[in-house]
Structures are given as C-alpha cells and as structure tokens.
Write a structure and sequence with these properties.
three-stranded antiparallel sheet; seven-stranded mixed sheet; Rossmann fold; 17 helices; 430 residues; Serine Threonine Protein Phosphatase 5, Tetratricopeptide repeat; 3 domains; 11% strand; alpha/beta
C-alpha cells in the first residue's frame, strides 16, 4: 500500500497522512474489486501502466466537499478590494480570477455572482476554474445543483441566479458565461503556464493535503501566477503555511488572504466608484450615487464577522445533557467547516464550561487561534487535545504544520510518523 500512496503523492501531491491511509486502502480495495484483481501488486502495476485507472483512483480519493459562498468573508473581502483598489486603478481591461481546485464549481460561480452583485459588468471580469477531477468538472459544466450546495444562512442569491428544475436548481447563463473550466493539476509544470497572471487567486483547503516539499512547490506556482499587487485566498488552516514561502498575511479578518511578501501595501481608497464607471447591481436597483456596502452584497444580507474567540459565560447547569453537548460540538464542527472559526471556538468554549475537558473542543479553539495568527496559543490548545485524546490526528497535523513553519523538522516528522501509526492501527482494527 505504501508504494500506491507514493504513486498518489507523485501524481497529485497527496500526503496519505492528511486523509488517512485507511481511507486510501479502502478505496484501493474497492477499485481492485471492480477490476477483479486480488493481489495488491497487480493493481499497483496497473496504475503505473494505465492513466485511465490512475484517474479513476484519483476520482475516488478526491473529496468534493463544497457549497456556494463557503467562507463568506473571503468573497466580501475580494469585492471590497475590487471596488476600493482594482477599479480605480483599472479604467479598462478585465479582472482575472483563478479558482484552483474548483471542485464542482460552487466557488468560481460564487465569485462570479459576488462580482455581478457588486455591479461589475460581465465583460469586465473572467473566472478561470481548474480541477484535477473530470467528474467534478463535468458536474460544474452542467450548472445544476442540489440542496447540499446551498448551506448558507441566506439564500437570496438562489432566487436571483437559479431556477428550479427537475434535478435541483439550474444556474443562470449570465453567471455560467463568466466561468471557464479546465482540467489540470496545479503541480504540473505545464498547468496554467499560458494563462498569464491573476488579480485574485482562490486556492483554499488544498495545501493541507500536501507534505512540506509539495506545499512549497504549490506556493511557488501560485507566486508566479499572482499579480504583484494581487491577493491569494487560502483555507483557515493554511494561513500559517505561507510565511516561509514568499507570502504574508493581508491582515483581513476571517478572509484568510495573503499577499506576496515583496509587494508594497496597496493604498487605502474610499469605497466609491467614479461617475464614468458607476455600475448598478442587477437586482438591487441602487439609486444613482449610492455607495456599495456590505448590505448591498450577496443578496443584501451580508455582515462582516468580527473575531470573537471567547463566548460569554453560559448559565450554570446542574446536570448537563450529554446529548445536547454532543450536538453543540457537532454544530461547532459545521461552523468550522464553513470557515466560521470564531463562532466555532465560542461554541467550543461554552461546551468546555458546561461539559468539562474535550479533545475536539480544544482542537477547534486551536484552529481559531491559528487563523488569528496566535501560534503559541494554538499549539497549547492542540497539545491539550492530544493529552485528552492521544490519537487525535487532526491536532497532530496542525501541530506538525506549526512545527514546520518554525523550522522544527524533527518534531514535524515525528508527528507525521505518529499519524501514520494511528492510521495503521485504525486499519488493523477495521
């Protein structure tokens, strides 16, 4: 199995420890069964000689977990940058945005809807979307989505840009026409080499699946693709990875955005559009002269979230309900998955007060500290999680990433080896 994991690493950069060797083994066994193969070595040889089979394995391993306007603050930050900085500096020309990996299309389509909501004409922007999965791109191209793609608290955008059809909701041609899909692997030297540079890049929740050398390679590629004054948006757990790879945080709360380390800070400009380039949002019907604000973005409901890592003390409970505690922890995890780390941390703090020490609650608080740039506090939370639950692999991974950032390769290697042992134990039990 180790040799197959290496093939996946070489082909798509996947670090087996990030998803668990047990998941890869289950996937391989299912593929072997479909191909009527009994020996692992036979299947490995097939992978080396059959690009089609390698593609099928990748399709089975890749997890397409996304939805429209996931991590809403990132989209709001992008719109603010376009209105305040890009438009005043670019009276002509088209804004260029890259979404990689784009999965089934929710992210790049969200970018297009956000820009249309901000009043940007269709001919002033283009979104390029790249993914390694042919199946994901095929679904994205059809533009039909079910309920799992609509998890935002406000779904006004669905009323404006989708129409109900038999299999779900069909996205409008106005949005689909601004997104251009292409199959590719960011780690491939030839991928995106002829596409020029981008004003904004969304590369979220990809780096966490790579080992340290592969992360460095991916970030070098992103550095070449990003315009000098551009912004790159990464996932909540990925911001600590960028410091030693040519990027610095853009210091935009909860947006997880970074700039090139050698880029000069962009000048702050008032949030207005010149009379010659004033755009009226398609469905808000703004009166002339009305400035674009958060309330006129994404269906009129967005409000910028503020970091708040500690919740107010909850009323004392004599007999906490363990079922309610588990439900609260599950809600906190869903908030974290949606990028609402401060809310997840606040709920986890409440859980700790009401139910006592909990490994996963400490882990979620650590994630929020990480995103806020508080590495020491984050590491403390992760260690508390491991003290309570020594086999908590997500906490191990985050500690390994922090150690790598600090140059402590020995500690990082030990943590990753520990993760591999846990995965092997899980496989043995399974």
């Amino acid at each position: 199995m180790y040799r197959i994991e290496n093939l996946l690493r070489e082909t798509m950069g996947l670090d087996a420890a990030s998803v668990g060797s047990s998941l890869i083994e289950r996937t391989v066994r299912l593929r072997m069964k479909s191909r009527r193969l009994k020996e692992l070595e036979e299947y490995r040889q097939l992978l080396e000689t059959s690009p089609a089979e390698m593609n099928d394995l990748i399709e089975s391993v890749v997890v397409a977990e996304t939805w429209f306007f996931r991590d809403r603050e990132a989209f709001a930050a992008m719109v603010r940058q376009v209105v305040n900085e890009w438009l005043p500096a670019n009276s002509i020309g088209a804004l260029r945005i890259l979404s990689v990996p784009c999965s089934t299309g929710e992210e790049p389509y969200s970018l297009a809807m956000a820009l249309l909501d901000a009043g940007l004409p269709q001919d002033r922007f283009q979104v390029d979307a790249v993914d390694i999965s042919a199946l994901a791109l095929d679904r994205a191209g059809h533009g039909i989505y079910g309920k799992n793609s609509f998890r935002a608290s406000n779904l006004d955008f669905r009323k404006h840009y989708f129409q109900p059809v038999k299999d779900g909701f069909l996205l409008s041609p106005a949005v689909r026409s601004r997104v251009f899909f292409k199959r590719g692997n960011l780690l491939d030297d030839k991928c995106l080499t002829e596409n020029g540079i981008y004003d904004f890049i969304f590369c979220r929740n990809l780096l966490i699946y790579f080992d340290r050398p592969t992360q460095a390679k991916a970030l070098q590629k992103l550095d070449r693709l990003l315009a000098p004054a551009g912004l790159c948006f990464v996932g909540p757990a990925e911001l600590p990875l960028i410091a030693n790879n040519g990027f610095v945080s853009a210091n935009i709360p909860m947006a997880f955005a970074c700039r090139k380390a050698d880029a000069l800070p962009a000048p702050r400009r008032p949030a207005r559009i010149s009379p010659q380039a004033r755009f009226v949002p398609a469905h808000h019907q703004l009166k002339p002269g009305k400035a674009l604000t958060h309330s006129t973005t994404f269906g009129g409901s967005f409000r910028a979230s503020q970091p708040q890592l500690l919740a107010k003390p909850a009323p004392a409970r004599q007999r906490p309900d363990p079922h309610a505690g588990q439900a609260k922890l599950e809600t906190a995890q869903r908030l974290a998955d949606a990028g609402k780390l401060s809310d997840a941390a606040a709920l986890s703090e409440t859980h700790l007060r009401e139910h006592g020490p909990c490994a996963h609650a400490y882990y979620l608080i650590g994630r929020a500290r990480d995103a806020a740039g508080e590495a020491i506090q984050a590491a403390t939370c992760y260690r508390k999680a491991l003290y309570l639950e020594p086999q908590h692999s997500p906490a191990m991974l985050q500690l390994a990433l922090l150690a790598e950032k600090d140059g402590d390769i020995t500690t990082a290697r030990r943590l990753r080896q520990r993760m591999q042992r846990v995965a092997k134990q899980d496989r043995a039990v399974g």
